[in-house]
Design brief:
Elements (H helix, E strand, L loop, with lengths): L3 E6 L1 H5 L4 H6 E3 L9 E8 L2 E13 L9 E7 L2 H9 L1 H5 L8 E5 H6 L1
Parallel strand pairs: 1-3
Antiparallel strand pairs: 1-6, 2-5, 3-4, 4-5
Length: 113
C-alpha cells in the first residue's frame, strides 16, 4: 500500500468552537488497516485546506457510542507541507465522495499534480 494523506472535513467541529487540532484529530470512522500508511492528516473547512498534522500515535476508541472510531496524537506539519496541500486544493477536494467527511489521497498523487 502507498503512503497517504487522510483528508477530513472539520467544519462541524469548528462550529463547536474546537481548535484545528481537536477538530482534526478525531473521532473518525476510518479503516484501521490504513493507519500505518497515513503520513499526514489534513483538515478541510469551507472547501479549503485549513490545517495539517503528522500523526505520531493512533488510538481506537474501545467503548461508548464512539466505539471503533479512531483518533490521533500528533504535531502540526511544517508550513511548506501545508502550503503544498493548499496549492493542490482542487485535486484534494475531488477525493471526497458525495456527503463523505473522510477521504484519502496518496503522497504521489500530490507530487504528480
Amino acid at each position: 500500500m502507498k503512503e497517504e494523506i487522510l483528508l477530513l472535513k472539520i467544519q462541524n467541529a469548528l462550529k463547536e468552537r474546537k481548535d484545528y487540532y481537536e477538530a482534526t484529530r478525531g473521532n473518525w470512522k476510518i479503516n484501521k488497516s490504513r493507519l500505518p500508511f497515513i503520513q499526514y492528516v489534513a483538515g478541510i473547512s469551507g472547501g479549503k485546506v485549513v490545517c495539517a498534522f503528522q500523526p505520531s500515535k493512533w488510538e481506537v476508541i474501545e467503548y461508548g457510542t464512539e466505539k471503533g472510531r479512531k483518533r490521533f496524537e500528533g504535531n502540526e506539519v511544517p508550513s511548506e507541507i501545508l502550503v503544498k496541500l493548499q496549492k493542490k486544493e482542487e485535486q484534494v477536494l475531488r477525493k471526497f465522495g458525495r456527503g463523505s467527511a473522510v477521504a484519502y489521497i496518496s503522497l504521489t498523487e500530490i507530487e504528480n499534480y
